[in-house]
């Protein structure tokens, strides 16, 4: 059983999108995975934003039962792979659990045709942005998750 964890800031948009999409794309093999998400500054127990739920619904993904979780030492320790949305998330996790560095990846590094450029792999936070911004962020995450699903 592989434990996959997605991390963003508030666990209400990006990491929720990534979690929901990966569950969808690996559904046939889903029994081999535990997939979750958390936020480095999340408040526990809040639902995903309405905009997040709307764009996921267009993808056939229902995350209406999602409740936010603040990232903990145990979550990091138990994860086999951790995918973060921004470099700042990677650094926060390494500060919390230094030995976890090797299992953390920037999700944006899995974008099709990606060429590493410092700071260009971050996936922007859509919170309080327009519906089209949410759709664009979801599109980037979807492309990355398809690649991650193939690798897993």
**Uncertain residue segments:** 115-119
CATH third-tier fold name = Rossmann fold
Q: Based on the coordinates given, report the CATH architecture.
A: 3-Layer(aba) Sandwich
Mean of residue pLDDT?
Answer: 92
CATH class: Alpha Beta
Q: Biggest sheet: strands, sense, closure?
A: 4 strands, parallel
Query: How many DSSP-defined strands?
Result: 4
Order of helices and strands: EHEHHEHEH
Distance between the termini: 12 Å
Rough shape?
Answer: globular
Tally of distinct domains: 1
- CATH superfamily assignment? Response regulator
Portion of residues in beta strands equals 5-15%
Query: From the alpha-carbon coordinates, what is the Rg to the nearest angstrom?
Result: 14 Å
Key structural traits:
5 helices; Rossmann fold; 152 residues; 4-stranded parallel β-sheet; alpha/beta; 38% helix
Concise summary:
The chain is an alpha/beta fold. Helix content is 38%, strand content 14%. The longest helix is centred in the C-terminal third of the chain and has 21 residues, at 131-151.
What does the model show?
The chain has about 150 residues and is of the alpha/beta class. The chain has a single domain, classed as Rossmann fold. The chain has five helices and four strands. Strands 2-1-3-4 form a four-stranded parallel β-sheet, sandwiched between helices. β1, α1 and β2 form a beta-alpha-beta unit. α1 crosses α5 and α2 packs across α5. The longest helix is centred in the last third of the chain and has 21 residues. About 5% of the residues have low confidence.
């Amino acid at each position: 059983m592989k434990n996959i964890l997605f991390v963003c800031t508030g666990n209400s948009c990006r990491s929720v999108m990534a979690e929901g999409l990966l569950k969808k794309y690996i559904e046939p093999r889903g029994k081999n995975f535990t997939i979750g998400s958390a936020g480095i500054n999340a408040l526990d127990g809040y639902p995903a934003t309405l905009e997040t739920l709307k764009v996921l619904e267009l993808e056939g993904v229902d995350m209406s039962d999602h409740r936010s979780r603040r990232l903990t030492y145990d979550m990091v320790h138990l994860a086999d792979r951790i995918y973060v949305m921004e470099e700042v998330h990677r650094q926060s996790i390494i500060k919390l659990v230094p030995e976890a560095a090797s299992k953390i990846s920037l999700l944006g590094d899995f974008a099709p045709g990606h060429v590493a450029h410092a700071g260009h792999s971050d996936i922007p936070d859509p919170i309080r942005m327009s519906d089209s911004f949410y759709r664009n962020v979801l599109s980037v995450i979807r492309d990355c998750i398809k690649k991650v699903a193939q690798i897993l």
